[in-house]
Amino acid sequence: MHMRAEPMTVREPKKTTPPSLLPETAAPRDLVSIHDLAPAEILQLFNLTSMLKQRPADFRGVLAGKQMVMFFEKPSLRTRLTFEAGMDSLGGSAFFVDQTGSRLNARESLYDIAHNLERWIDIIVLRTFSHATVEEMATYASVPVINALSELEHPCQALADFFTLQEQFGDLQKLHFAYVGDGNNMAHSLLLAGASVGAKVSIATPERYGLNPVIVTMAKAIAEQTKAQLRILTDPHKAVAGADAVYTDAWASMGQEHEAEERAAVFAPFQVNAALMQLAKPHARFMHCLPAHRGCEVTDQVIDSVNSVVFDQAENRLHIQKAILVWILGGGVGRFRARSTHA
Ligand code: CP
Ligand code: NVA
To answer: How far is the CA of 277 from the CAs of 170, 229, 232, 283, 314, in angstroms?
Structure first.
C-alpha cells in the first residue's frame, strides 16, 4: 500500500540494518542516495562490478525479459548510453522517455505515474531537477527506482568513481580523496561514498556554495562506523595537499547555466590546474564526472595529462550500472559469485 507523502529535502534511508547483519545477497530496493547502500554492500557491489567487467559473457541474458524505463528531465550522454547498453548486454530492454520539455509531473501526478509504471515495467530510472521527484517515485512505485542524477545526488557516478579508485589504488581506506569546487550533487554523493569506503575525504567549496548540511550529517554518521576521515574546507590548497586523487565538477550544473558568469568569478581560485595538482602526491589522479568545461574548472593540461582517469570513470559507469541492475533485478550478489566460481 503506498501512501501520499510530503516531499522531503533528504529522505530517511529505508534500511537501518547494520552492515554486519546484512545477508550477502541483500538487494537494495531503490538507489536514490548512496545512503541506501550500507558500507559493506558498496564493497560487495564493487566485487560484482569487477566480475561483470572481467567476464561480461558470463552475465549475458541474466536479465532477459526485464524491462527498464528511463525518464530524463535533463540532457545526458554517459548515463543514458551506459544504462541502455548495459541493460541490452544483460538481455533486458530499455525504454527512454525524453522528459527535457517538461517536468515529469507536469501532465499528471507522480502518484498516478508510479501506479501505471509498476504495472508494466520492472525498474524505473530517473534524472530530475528535484530530488523530491525521485524520492516520491520511490515511495509510490512498488518497483525499484534508481537516481540517475538529481540536484542533490548522483549516486551511480560516485559509485563508478570509487570503483575506479579501487582499480587504481587497491585499498580505499588508505586513500586521500580531494574534491574542489561546487558543493553540488557530485560533491554530496562523493562525500557519502568516500565516508562509506572509509577513505580520507577533503572537500573544499567556496563559502556560499557549500554542502547540504543534512548530507554532511549523514556522512559523519557513516564515518563513525567506517573510520573515514572527513574534512569540510573552503581552501582548495588545503584540500588537495597530499591527496591521491583530485576531483572537480562543473561550476554551474545543469539548470544553473544562467548563473555561470557570477559563479565563474567566485570559483576561479578553485580551478584544477598544474599549480594546484602540484600540491597533491606526484601520482595523484585527476578525476571529473564529465562533461568538463575546459579552461573553467579544469585546464587542458590537467585533464589531458597521463594522471587523468576521466575516461576510466566514464567506462566504469557501464560496469557499475550493470552490477546495480543485476543486483537489484537479478537475485543478489551471492548467486553470481557461485555462478562465476563454478564457471
Ligand atoms: N557524468 C554524467 O552523468 O554524464 P551525463 O550527464 O552525460 O550522463
Ligand atoms: N553537477 C553536474 C553533474 C553532471 C554529470 C550537473 O548536475 O550538471
So the answer is: 21, 21, 19, 10, 21
Task: Give yes or no for residue 77 CB within 6 A of ligand 1.
Answer: yes
Question: What amino acid positions are annotated as catalytic residues?
Answer: 127, 154, 157, 249, 289, 317
Distance 100 CA to ligand 2 centre (A): 15
User: For 200-237, how does the pLDDT look when each residue is reduced to its tens digit (9 = 90+)?
Assistant: 999 999 999 999 999 999 999 999 999 999 999 999 99
Counting atoms of ligand 1 from 1, which one is nearest the CA of 314? 1
Q: 18-153+317-329 belongs to which homologous superfamily?
A: Aspartate/ornithine carbamoyltransferase (3.40.50.1370)
Our answer on whether the CB atom of 338 is closer than 6 Å to any ligand 1 atom is no
Per-domain residue ranges of the chain: 18-153+317-329, 157-312
Residue 147 β-bridge partners? 126
- Cα separation of 184 and 173, whole Å? 24
pLDDT for 18-65, tens place per residue? 333 333 445 558 999 999 999 999 999 999 999 999 999 999 999 999
Q: At 12, is the pLDDT very low, low, confident or very high (cuts 50, 70, 90)?
A: very low
